TrEMBL record:
Keywords in alphabetical order: Endoplasmic reticulum, Membrane, Signal, Transmembrane, Transmembrane helix
Name listed for the protein in its UniProt record: TMD11 protein
Lineage: Eukaryota, Metazoa, Chordata, Craniata, Vertebrata
Family in the record: Belongs to the EMP24/GP25L family.
Cited SMART domains: EMP24_GP25L
Cellular component annotations (GO), alphabetically ordered: endoplasmic reticulum membrane
Keyword Mitochondrion on entry: no
Origin: domain of life: Eukaryota
GOLD domain: residues covered: 8-106
Subcellular location: Endoplasmic reticulum membrane; Membrane
InterPro entries reported for this sequence: Emp24-like, GOLD_dom
Membrane topology according to the record: Single-pass type I membrane protein
Membrane-traversing stretches: 164-183
Amino acid sequence: FHSGEREEKCIIEDVPSDTLVIGNYKVQRWDTQKHEFLESAPGLGMFVTVTTPTADVLMSKLYGPEGIFSFTSELPGEHIICLQSNSTRFVAFAGSKLRIHLDIRVGEHFLDESVLQAKDKVNEVNLRLEHLLEQIHHVAKEQNYEREREEKFRKTSEETNSNILWWAIVQTLILISIGLWQIKSLRDFFIAKKLV
């Protein structure tokens, strides 16, 4: 995505609790002479801020023009990941555009390089099995989180439908009572004027 200097861009990521989130980014600055984005942006850094669903700041750190950040979610819900450049230019003069390449991986765990180069095949297979079991545990945790969200949504939908039904019944009763009152008023009026 593109951003201006000193402009904060945020991404919302829905994450279950106790889940590792890894973000990898790279920043490119627009060159006004060449009319293209430079491959590197020397001297430019990024503030990365992560906010929990309860608006607590989970992480706030300054990185370079390229970097990897990671955090583990404490609560389930929407975590807000914000990126902002640390440009020292005044906002009025900071007309440079930035291109930010961002890759966010949720729930990924990486094997050690030493594991991949292990000479003992039994040990390597055992560690790979542990890694697969950890991934299965993560998938099960994510499914439970989605199940809880779906149950909460269903409960909210049922309450809304119930409220709509009662509101429709109340409106119908009000319309019937107003109609009966108008009929009675007109009848009394016609009788008083001796038109009936």
